[in-house]
Amino acid sequence: MNRINIIIFRTVMLGVFAIAMLFIAGPSAFADDDHGCTPGHEHIGSCGGTDGQDGQDGRDGRDGIDGADGRDGIDGTNGTDGRDGIDGIDGRDGIDGVVNYTELTRVIRESYIDHLAATTAIQIHLPQDSSQRFTLSGSTVGGTTGIGAGYAYKFDRDDNLAVTAGIGSAGGEQVGVVSVGFEFGARTPVGYDDSKLERRLDTLEKDFQRQQELWNEDAKRCASELDKEKGRSGNVERKLMECLRK
């Protein structure tokens, strides 16, 4: 009997549990897809009730791992330039600067004088009895002293080819010159016309004799005048010079 009672008790408890679960599940457990509810035919446990309030949102999950960056896209074409804007208002003119002409003139003058002194100091002369010649010279221009050196080389040739070079320095200015020269063309012989020279000498001799005769005549005249004034006071030499000037 006890075994049977135990079986009956378990069966009753299972039934009660099943009924309780049906009540907990609500009427939706007995409704079809369209809930089986039509107006005027509502049955308890067969139609859905009013929706309950939404439950609280759950906590956000952790962020996922970032994906790999995608490739850069192709650059787009440039847009058309916009129209130029309206010009702004012109600004006011600035104040004219002041030029120190005195200082400018001084700088130009000093530079010019230094250059001129350096150039003047360069003296180059061709050799006469040798093939080479060196010349050292100096100059002074406007209080600036310059020094220079010149060199010339003459080749032993029929055209007298020569090369020259020179350098001058003054007040920080440096000047250099280089030249090449030679002779060309027909040679002109150098000679003297003896007949012309003799005629010229004869003319000079006659002129000298005539001048000497005039001097003698003047001397005689002055001596005669001085002889007449013997015994008179006066400087004889001064009177003689005055007589010769007449």
Give the structure's gist in a few sentences.
The protein has 4 helices and 4 strands; from the N terminus they run ααββββαα. The protein has helices at 2-25, 101-120, 194-228, 236-245; strands at residues 132-141, 144-154, 162-170, 173-181. The chain is rod-shaped and about 215 Å long.
What does this structure look like?
By secondary structure, the chain is of the alpha+beta class. Among the domains are: 37 residues; 61 residues, GSPII I/J protein-like (Pantoate--beta-alanine Ligase, Chain: A,domain 2, 2-Layer Sandwich); 52 residues. Strand 1 and strand 2 form a beta hairpin. The protein starts with a helix and ends with a helix.
Q: How do the helices and strands line up, and which of them pair or pack?
A:
Elements: H1 2-25, H2 101-120, E1 132-141, E2 144-154, E3 162-170, E4 173-181, H3 194-228, H4 236-245
Antiparallel strand pairs: 1-2, 2-3, 3-4
Radius of gyration based on Cα positions: 70 Å
The percentage of residues in β strands lies in 15-25%
CATH architectural grouping of the domain at 121-181:
2-Layer Sandwich
Compute the number of strand runs.
Answer: 4
Using the alpha-carbon principal axes, give the shape.
rod-shaped
**Low-pLDDT stretches:** 31-35
Instruction: Write down the oligomeric state.
Output: single chain
List keywords for this structure.
single chain, about 250 residues, alpha+beta, Pantoate--beta-alanine Ligase, Chain: A,domain 2, four-stranded antiparallel β-sheet, about 35% helix, rod-shaped
